[in-house]
Amino acid sequence: MSNNPHNTLQIDTFTCAWCGLTVTTTAADGARREHCPSCLHSRHVTDHVAGGPSRCEGRMTPIAIAVLRTGDWHIVHRCVRCDELTAGPVQPDDNQLILMRMAVRPLAQPPFPLEALGSL
Questions:
Q1: 7 Cβ partners below 8 Å, 6+ apart?
Q2: What ranges in 1-120 are assigned the alpha helix state H?
Q3: Percent of the chain with pLDDT over 70
Q4: CA atoms within a 13 Å half-sphere pointing along the CA-CB vector of 32
């Protein structure tokens, strides 16, 4: 017997802490979603250091892209409240423009003057 007495489809959602979009917790490929596909922000609900739930619940800002040896892309987030860093997989329906902006940011803003490359 079903736990749903009205026999209706229930979809878990969350509201993005940054843009306010209502997001399903299941991504397009069936994986569990950890961030908003539109703005890529997240909420600090898991303590990745100690494990289990986090009491912080601060907004997690996407700050970088990490590419694993397998070629998979992960979004690196930093909590605006406690500064904890996390990384989670990019989902197929994530905002491609924001992903590419984060991926090329180190090339567009190097930590040295670009003129220094001319003297090498």
A1: none
A2: 96-108
A3: 89
A4: 2
Higher-confidence position of 19 and 113? 19
Pairing of strands 42-43, 22-24: unpaired
Tokens of 33: 């979603």
What is the pLDDT at residue 1? 44
Cα–Cα distances (Å) from 12 to 40, 41, 87, in that order, read 18, 18, 22
Going by C-alpha positions, the residue among 106, 98, 114 that lies closest to residue 39 is 98
Which of 26, 20, 25 lies closest to 38, judged by CA?
A: 20
At 20, list the tokens. Answer: 């306010």
Sheet holding 73-79, edge to edge: 42-43, 59-67, 73-79, 85-89
pLDDT at site 28: 80
* CA distance to 20, 25, 50, per residue, from 93 (Å): 17, 13, 30
**The two structure tokens encoding residue 35:** 């961030």
Q: What is the distance between the alpha carbons of residues 62 and 52, in angstroms, rounded to a whole number? A: 21
Amino acid, res. 66: A
Structure tokens at 102: 């984060």
